[in-house]
Each structure stands twice: as C-alpha cells, then as structure tokens.
Design brief:
The complex is a heterodimer of chains A (about 290) and B (about 400). Chain A has about 290 residues and is mainly α. Chain A has 15 helices and 2 strands. By secondary structure, chain B is of the alpha+beta class. The chains are: A mainly alpha (about 290), B alpha+beta (about 400). Chains A and B meet through helix 8, helix 10 and helix 11 of A and helix 1, helix 2 and helix 3 of B.
C-alpha cells in the first residue's frame, strides 16, 4: 500500500532536526508498521485509517532520535546525550542498587548504543530496534534491566555460596515421586486453562515472590485487586488439584495429604509445587521441559 | 519456550501501550519466563517519592526568628509576672474593695478617658477571652491609695462579687443575634477561686425570679463566661462548681448594657447568697469609686434536682411557667412539669443534638438550636416545629 500520503501528514520536523531525512524516516515508519502489523493481530489487513492511527500513536520524536543515533548522526547523539546521559546513569544505579555497578552498567550500555559491539559483520546499535511504541526512556530502562539480569546470571555462578546469607527455607514435605508426577500433570492441565494474566500473577507471586504492589504496578490494577485475584486463584487451584488427583485414582485423603491438609499451608505447598514442577507447569501442554530453549 | 522478549516489547508492555493481543502474548511468555519477568520488574519506573513539603519562600526566612523571639519574650514576661505575683506582698490580701466606673455616655458618643489606675487587684481576670465591652476591663482596677475618691457608693458590692453595668461600644458584634432590643444587654464575668485563679467549667444559671427567662452557661478555661441577649431586669445568678461553695447573686441587668459579675468561689459545700444590685444611673465613668458596704446572708442551698433519665449531667436548663427543659451532655432534651422531680425525654423531631436552648418572649416560649444550626420552636416544650426562615 502507498503509505506516502499518511507519512507526509505526520509531523516529521523532529526527524529533520536530528539529521534524518524524510525518506529515511519514512523507511523506519514502514518497517515498524510492517513488523507489528500496525498494531493489529497477525493476518488482519490494516486500513489507511488504522495505519494513520498507528503512526500517530508512536513516539515520533523519540523514534527519529533513536534511529538517527543508530545511523550515527552527530546532531542526534548530541541531543541523545543531553537528554538521556544522566537519567540513564541514575536508572542504572537504581536498578543495580550500587553507584559503581550502575555507572559500569550505564557505560557498557553506552558502548553498545554507539554500535561498538559487532553482530556478524555489521555493527548495529540496539537503538535500531526501538519501535517508538513506548517511550525511549522506557526502552533504555528495559535494555538496562535486561543487561543487568544477564550480567547477574552470568556472574552469580561465580559468587561463592558463603557470601549468600539467605535464610533456610522451612522444611516442607515433598511428595513422593509418584505423587509428584500426578501433581505436575494436574497442575499443567489446570494452568493451561488459566488466562495468561492469571498465570503471570501466579508465577510472579509464588515463584518470584514479588509483592502485591510490584505485581499491581505491572498489571496496572490496584493491590487489592491482585490480592483478591490471588486468593481466588489459590482456592481454585487447590480445589481443582484435589479434583484432578481424585480423578487420577487417588483417594480424597491421599489427595489432601499430597496438597497439605492444613489450609494455612496452601501458599507454601503451592509455591513448592510450582517450584518443583515449574518447567512443566508453566509450559503449554505437549511441550516437555527438556525442550525448553531460553 | 519461545525466545526472550525484546526490550522494545518489554518496555511497551511495562508502559501499557501494547495492543491487547500482543499484551496477552507477552503475559503468556512472562508467566513462563522468569528471566523476562525479572527484566519487567526491574524496568518499572521507581516508586514515586512521597511529595515533600513545598519549600518556603525565601522571604519567609527573614521572619523566621520572629516567632522564636516572640515566644522568648512571652516566656520572659510570664516568668517575671509569676515571680512578681508570688513574691509581691500586696498580692496576698483579697480584693475587698472594687472600683466603680460610671457608665459611659450613649454608645454613639466617643467613650471618655478611662480613670487613673495604679494597681490591679485581680491580675488573672484579664485573660484569654476579652470582655466585649472595653470599660469593663477597667472595672477590675482599684485605686487603693487615692484619698480623693468619690463619695459612698450607691451600689452594694460584696467582697466577692461585683456587678457593674458597662456600655457596649457601637462596633461590638454580638454573636447571639436574636431579633430583640435586648440583644445588647447581658452578663459577663469571671469566676475565680480564693487564689485568683479562674475556675473552668463552673455552671452559671441565670433565672428571672418572677419571669420565665432562664439561661445557662459554663465558664471557659480562664473562668470567664458571657450571657448575651438577656432582657433587662433583675435576675438570680447561681454559680456552681464541684468542690466549691455555690454562690447565688441578685444581678440587675440594665438595658443595652453588659453587667460584669466577678465572683470568687470559696472551697467547701455550703452555698452562699450574695445580694448584688447594679444601677446604671448610679455608676459614674469619670472617676473610680470604692465600695465598702456589703450585705451578705447565708442560707442552705436548694435541693438538687433529680438526675436526668439519661444519667448524664444537665448542660442547659430553662424554665417557663411550670415547664422545665433540660439538655444533657449528650445533647438530648428532657422535660419536667414539676420543677425537676420527674423528667420525661422529649422525642426529637430534629436531626442531631441540641446545642443551645433558650426561652423567648412570645407564644413560642422555647427555642432550641441543634448542632447543625437548625432552630426549632415550641410552646409547651414537648412539640417542636422548625423556626420559619
């Protein structure tokens, strides 16, 4: 489709101010639109109005700046440094919780953003992947977080165990292997029926031990909503697991014993169960944990 | 598990700008991938810092020492005052003499110069709540050394009570703005103990022996009270406070003037009756006068009325004819037709609590004001109707 009229209607003065030509910016816009199908589900053809709406929803100024930087335009870099250098450093310090680590993380990301790391035969800046749907500040924050998580996972194996002062987990009776297999199967079956958001809540709460506030901020709901949802999900999981276990041939008493008869233990038991069977439980049915590639 | 999500998608997810189908895909991946979940939680914007107090303008800093200096000055004055009071030999004798101030000319005319004074007899009576009429503050001043005082008093004043009518300046605003010419007349005063300290919470009961008017009040923390809107006439003022002897005074309230009544309560339980007569025409403003004649008679206090059915103390009591109304401390209204021997709760037709209760001349004898400032009228104290606006 001819997107030129729609592009020409956009305020692209910002692109020119950072050293990006109209054609270059139009190419970026078309690439973003194609990649995300103009915000529509795959297979749905976008109308001109939908295309125009999609482009108008983009952070055009940030998009132009990021791609101009990726192309190495000096004007753009001056603006980028003026706008993001200090916020990037502060964000990195906030993420790492350390001034030294934060400065190191921010500096290493700068090197990446300048395109100093090679991919294949071509140097490419991460800024070239910025789509403009979110803010450039948010993109940089997520990139920093990703680099920090990668660094932590890479270096945490080198951390001696003696330095970790973590309280020992309370002893929880782990079911026998036979019961565990049944529990895994039941849990996988139940989780597969849950909506993605509820599965996310369960994993963030039980596996990551995130707080209600953290989860509520991600889902943009109130803490109380997350709390109620968790209560409902926990009760539902417990009930359905009992049903599944009984359907698989276990007696009611044995099923309750496997899950923990004390209702106060349901949280801990579910957490243990999810942790023990995490690789299988959160995967779609039919996909084995062994085939996981992350 | 699919590949990790790109920071571009993760940041868009965190900012909530993803379309629904892509958000669902993102959540489905996040439910499985703790790596991406970790990034998402780290990529959140930091928690908003609670709003700090707005910085004060610079110019306010210039006046910053002023409150400190003012507080220091007040503290110094208080210390010096207390020291002088405690060590001054003249402070010990009781105020057996009082000055009389003639009434000022009519309120329209400018008030005359206050009489010369040399010593304050009751330093604690001048206090937090100013008496509304300006000359009344001067009425507590005594010139004990002046030999050329005016001749004998025309007013009988006891050693422990004085009733001095004082004119109100024209600019005084009366809160109790009932539509009556009597609104400017009333009684104000101070109740103190033998040491001169104000007695807070003392019950002031004003009755018209021959009429239906009755009002109640309580002294404030400084021992002061004020009753406005009192029709001119002769009244019986009863002052009661726990641990003190009750005092009953006969007070003459002149038209459009405030009668000042200062009373010193004695410790004990025997009630004391003091006859006080104040005549507006007999008081001069040009000079201070000393009064030495006094008449005092003691009698047994009247029997206490029966307690209210609510077992709470009566805050306000008014009487009109055979009907006595009382408001307890919870704002409930009670009626008695036998001078308080038996009480009956009045079923409220108003919302809230009764905050004030007075008697009025006219067919609607009783008027109450609720805590929401609605006014209700009644002829018999039992059936109430809202006051016409």
């Amino acid at each position: 489709m001819d997107a030129a009229p729609a592009i020409s209607a956009l305020p692209i003065e910002d692109a020119e101010s950072v050293g990006l030509t109209k054609n270059e910016f139009a190419t970026v816009l078309l690439a973003v639109g194609d990649k995300y199908n103009y915000g529509l589900p795959p297979g749905v053809a976008a109308t001109p109005a939908q295309i125009r709406t999609f482009w108008q929803s983009l952070q055009l100024r940030d998009l132009a700046l990021a791609h101009a930087c990726a192309l190495g335009r000096d004007t753009a870099w001056r603006q980028f440094i003026a706008r993001f250098r200090e916020p990037l450093k502060q964000t990195a310090i906030g993420i790492t919780g350390s001034a030294a680590l934060g400065a190191e993380l921010a500096d290493s990301l700068y090197a990446e953003l300048f395109g100093l790391t090679e991919r294949g035969e071509q140097r490419r800046s991460p800024l070239a992947y910025y789509s403009g749907r979110g803010s450039l500040q948010g993109f940089l924050r997520a990139t920093l977080a990703q680099r920090n998580v990668d660094r932590h996972r890479r270096t945490s194996r080198e951390t001696p165990l003696s330095n970790e002062d973590v309280a020992a987990a309370p002893p929880v009776a782990v079911p026998s292997e036979d019961v565990l297999v049944r529990l895994r199967q039941s849990l996988s079956a139940i989780l597969s029926t849950l909506p993605p958001e509820e599965r996310f809540v369960l994993s963030a709460w039980f596996l990551d031990r995130r707080t209600l506030l953290e989860i509520s901020r991600i889902l943009r709901v109130h803490e109380a909503t997350v709390s109620r949802r968790l209560q409902r999900l926990t009760a539902k999981l417990h009930k359905e697991l009992l049903t599944h276990l009984q359907a698989s041939g276990m007696s009611k008493a044995a099923a309750e014993e496997a899950l923990g008869t004390d209702p106060r233990d349901i949280d801990m038991n579910l957490r243990t169960l999810l942790q023990v069977s995490r690789s299988a439980a959160f995967l779609p049915q039919g996909v084995s944990a062994d085939s996981e590639q992350t | 598990m699919s590949e990790h999500l790109h920071p571009d998608s993760l940041s868009a997810f965190v900012e909530g700008v993803l379309p629904e189908h892509e958000r669902a895909q993102c959540l489905a991946h996040l439910a499985e991938c703790d790596h991406c979940r970790e990034i998402v939680f780290q990529a959140q914007e930091p928690m908003p810092v609670p709003a700090t107090a707005k910085p004060e303008p610079v110019w306010r800093g210039w006046f910053a020492p002023v409150p400190v200096l003012a507080a220091a000055a007040v503290a110094c004055v208080a210390v010096v005052g207390v020291s002088l009071y405690l060590h001054h030999p003249a402070a010990a004798p009781p105020p057996v003499t009082v000055a009389h101030v003639n009434p000022a000319p009519p309120p329209i005319q400018p008030p005359p110069e206050p009489p010369p004074v040399t010593q304050k007899v009751q330093p604690r009576t001048t206090s937090r709540r100013p008496v509304p009429s300006q000359p009344s503050t001067d009425s507590t001043l005594v010139d004990t050394t002046a030999p050329k005082l005016a001749p004998p008093p025309t007013v009988d004043v006891s050693a422990q009570a004085q009733a001095i009518p004082t004119p109100l300046p024209p600019s005084v605003t009366i809160k109790d703005d009932r539509a009556s010419a009597d609104v400017l007349s009333g009684i104000s005063g101070t109740v103190t103990d033998a040491t001169g300290a104000g007695v807070p919470g003392a019950t002031i009961t004003l009755r018209q022996p021959a009429g239906a008017f009755s009002r109640n009040a309580r002294t404030d923390v400084a021992g002061q009270f004020q009753l406005t809107g009192v029709p001119p006439g002769r009244y019986e003022l009863r002052i009661e406070s726990q641990g003190f002897q009750s005092a009953v005074k006969q007070v003459e309230v002149p038209p459009q003037q405030m009668a000042a009544v200062n009373s010193v309560l004695q410790i004990g339980s025997v009630s004391e009756t003091v006859e006080v007569t104040a005549g507006a025409s007999a008081v001069q403003t040009s000079s201070a006068e000393m009064s030495r004649s006094k008449s005092r008679s003691k009698k047994v206090s009247p029997p206490e009325p029966r307690p209210l059915p609510s077992k709470l103390p009566a805050e306000i009591t008014v009487t009109s004819g055979q009907v006595t109304l009382a408001v307890d401390s919870n704002g409930a209204l009670f009626l008695s037709r036998n001078a308080g021997k038996t009480w009956k709760a009045v079923k409220p037709t108003w919302k809230g609590k009764v905050a004030d209760l007075i008697t009025l001349p006219g067919p609607d004898v009783f008027q109450l004001t609720t805590d929401s400032d609605s006014i209700w009228l009644s002829r018999d104290g039992n059936r109430w109707s809202p006051a016409p606006k």
